[in-house]
Write a structure and sequence with these properties.
Blueprint (H helix, E strand, L loop, with lengths): L2 H5 L7 E10 L3 H13 L4 E4 L6 H10 L8 E5 L33 H7 L2 H17 L7 E3 L10 H10 L19 H12 L7 E4 L8 H11 L3 E7 L6 H6 L3 H10 L3 H10 L2 E3 L1 H11 L1
Parallel strand pairs: 1-2, 1-6, 1-7, 2-3, 3-4, 5-6
Length: 293
């Protein structure tokens, strides 16, 4: 049984999931969508992108809603800038020797060149700066996770975990037995097991609502719920309001708009209740981890 779930009092057959909204603060449409979904109450967690142009507006929304019992916001550790005409870069350095920046001075669009070129100390410096920016905005950070899963690489994962430890925060990371982790060096897998032994959560399963198609969103959500195994899972979605900005920014805007509508749909709330899964946020994981310290 996943030790963190045992600590939280779940039985050995429990399916526990965080319903997590990514990319908040990337654009205005994401900030507005977050405000909508927090009030509706299906979403259980979210993460914000500190280097992005709409982060200050996101922080304003967060500060105004911290007393909402559903408020749960982490740092979406950002080392990539994926859009063609809407881009951002590092907040800690402009030095090309860091390996973080492309020829135009932005983060790389894809994970692979970041994973190939980024220097470990530069990654740690940048992610530290991102967490510090979010904390300086005046609200309680619940966790770290990784934009585009770029941190799931042997050159980056140790720095990502060091930053989590520096701020005593849980980091989204999968168990060593997961297929995405198995090929990592043995010393990293050993470090993951040691983290779990110290009380840090490791996840059994990850899924994301598909961005390749936008129709039949309830059916896509049912597929994801049915696929949740016993243990701790993260189910990620990418909500935005339907705006001219979102349409101009993201070729997959229709799917992102569909995600917002899904998490404002009472039929989806009923579907979750009928599935028997337990929905939590990162805050309970963070607090349980810190109680073990």
């Amino acid at each position: 049984m996943n030790p963190i779930l045992q600590k939280l009092g779940y039985d050995e057959n429990a399916r526990v999931v965080i319903l997590h909204a990514d990319d908040i603060g990337m654009c205005q449409a994401s900030v507005d969508a977050y405000a909508d979904l927090l009030e509706f109450g299906i979403m259980s967690s979210a993460a914000t992108m500190a280097p992005c142009p709409w982060f200050p507006a996101a922080a304003e929304i967060f500060r105004a809603r911290q007393n909402n019992p559903r408020f749960d916001i982490g740092v979406h550790c950002t080392l990539n800038s994926e859009w063609q005409n809407f881009r951002w870069g590092a907040i800690s350095t402009r030095d090309s020797a860091s390996g973080l920046l492309d020829a135009d001075g932005y983060f790389y669009s894809l994970s692979e060149p970041t994973q190939e070129n980024a220097q470990s100390d530069a990654v740690e410096q940048e992610l530290t700066a991102q967490v510090e920016r979010v904390l300086a905005s005046g609200f309680d950070v619940t966790h770290l996770d990784t934009h585009m899963l770029t941190a799931f690489h042997s050159r980056i994962l140790p720095a990502y975990l060091r930053v989590a430890d520096k701020f005593n925060l849980p980091a989204f990371v999968l168990k060593p037995e997961h297929e995405w982790m198995r090929d990592l060096p043995k010393e990293i897998l050993t470090a993951l097991r040691e983290r779990q032994a110290r009380g840090a959560p490791l996840f059994d399963h990850f899924d994301a609502l598909a961005l390749e198609h936008h129709t039949r969103r309830l059916q896509e959500a049912q597929r994801a719920l049915d696929a949740l195994p016993v243990g701790l899972s993260a189910l990620v979605f990418h909500p935005v309001r339907d705006t001219a900005e979102a349409r101009a920014m993201a070729p997959d805007w229709r799917s992102r708009v569909a995600d917002r509508k899904l998490f404002l749909n009472e039929k989806f709330r009923a579907m979750i209740a009928a599935s028997g899964v337990h929905v939590i946020g990162y805050r309970v994981l963070r607090d349980a981890m810190r109680n073990d310290a």
